[in-house]
Q: What sequence folds into this?
């Protein structure tokens, strides 16, 4: 259980697991929204990962709150039919970090709204977009604390040198997500 706000009533959290081309993704949330997305750690590229397009809920399908249903549909589209993500609603998000007014929240919302599928920005560019050009390190901290990766696409934030940088799911997963987006963006062009 997680308190929805300071002094608020606890959420009745549900858990869903989605089998994806990158492995099992765990999604936690309640009736109010998605709390967290836990990505698998990838140390090596999965053989045939791109061919494995069947994204399906493998655990927790019963009694799934609407935000989790929307999240699994959005992630399924992201992996299997990326062009359709723009027409799907982004699931409601209900992690306490996203409820508080903070620079981290500002950075995460800016990233979600301004950096589109198949694009990448540097930490410094994202700091500029979020309104504080000298906060590149704080942007890195915001990326580390992102509770809903892929939905809020922290994998699209790279170093100014062009190096991909760190990622919660590991360097291999970040590179896989970036190349997945680049490949599908080129197909759409």
A:
């Amino acid at each position: 259980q997680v308190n929805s706000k300071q002094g608020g009533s606890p959420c009745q959290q549900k858990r869903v697991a989605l089998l994806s081309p990158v492995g099992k993704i765990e999604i936690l949330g309640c009736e109010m929204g998605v709390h967290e997305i836990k990505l698998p750690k990838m140390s090596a590229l999965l053989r045939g990962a791109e061919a494995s397009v069947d994204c399906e809920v493998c655990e927790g399908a019963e009694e799934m709150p609407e935000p989790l249903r929307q999240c699994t549909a959005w992630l399924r589209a992201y992996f299997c039919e990326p062009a359709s993500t723009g027409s799907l609603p982004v699931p409601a998000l209900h992690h306490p970090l996203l409820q508080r007014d903070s620079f981290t929240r500002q950075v995460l919302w800016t990233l979600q709204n301004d950096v589109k599928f198949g694009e990448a920005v540097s930490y410094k560019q994202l700091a500029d977009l979020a309104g504080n050009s000298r906060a590149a390190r704080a942007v890195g901290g915001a990326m580390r604390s992102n509770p809903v990766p892929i939905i809020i696409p922290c994998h699209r934030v790279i170093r100014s040198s062009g190096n991909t940088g760190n990622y919660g799911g590991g360097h291999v997963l970040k590179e896989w997500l970036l190349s997945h987006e680049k490949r599908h963006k080129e197909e759409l062009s």
